[in-house]
Amino acid sequence: MSTCTMIRKGISASDEALVSAAANGDRAAFAELAARYRRIAYAVAYAQLRHRETAEDVVQEALIKAFSRLPSFRRADRWAAWLMRIVRNAATDAARRRSLRSAEPIPPHLMGSDDNPEEQLLAQERLRTVAAAVQALPEKFRLPIVLHYGSGLTVPEAALALGLPASTVIGRIAGGLRILRRRLGHERLQ
């Protein structure tokens, strides 16, 4: 059964089969690959850039670059890691071009639904304080924390996104949380 037929029938093909088919011009196979990794790619770009529209542009740019270079790609079993490297590099380039340093405001739906205006203001201030402390972390700690807690990636997904072993991601999350606890003066940071 061809990869294209498998996709139409909803049968999951391996990354290797999809890469091979996409390298031979199968656009449906590449679309399936893009769909599989778009969420992780976006999380990586957003964690680096902290700007939604720019992160979306970076993912699109990275996918276009990956598609155009696919015929010369030889390690089909490493496609996801290769794509994440393209995303990280594109995000770094975008940050340099645009000199983005400010974070987007925290969405209101994450602020809580307490009707007491005083409590809402206190909650907003706590969130701003934590967000500023996270943004002040060195990148090696900030990115794993933002990917795991902010974007909801699992540790293996964050490891793939960062091109690191899962044990390193776990260690960096733990190290970043220790720094945050010290800076914020909290016994427990959750």
What string, H for helix and E for strand, traces the elements in order?
Answer: HHHHHHHHH
Q: How would you sum up the global shape?
A: elongated
CATH class of the largest domain, named Mainly Alpha
Radius of gyration: 19 Å
Specify the CATH homologous superfamily of the largest domain.
RNA polymerase sigma factor, region 2, helix turn helix motif
How does the helix and strand content classify structurally?
A: mainly alpha
Describe this structure in words.
It is a single chain. With 190 residues, the chain is mostly helical. The protein has 2 domains: 3-98, Rna Polymerase Sigma Factor, Chain: A, CATH 1.10.1740.10; 108-184, Winged helix-like DNA-binding domain superfamily/Winged helix DNA-binding domain (Arc Repressor Mutant, subunit A, Orthogonal Bundle). It is 71% helix and 0% strand. The protein contains 9 helices and no strands.
Short description:
The chain is mainly alpha-helical. It has helices spanning 3-8, 15-23, 27-49, 52-69, 79-98, 117-136, 139-150, 155-162, 166-184. The protein has two domains: 3-98, Rna Polymerase Sigma Factor, Chain: A; 108-184, Arc Repressor Mutant, subunit A (Orthogonal Bundle).
Label this structure with key terms:
190 residues, mainly alpha, Rna Polymerase Sigma Factor, Chain: A, Arc Repressor Mutant, subunit A, 2 domains, 0% strand
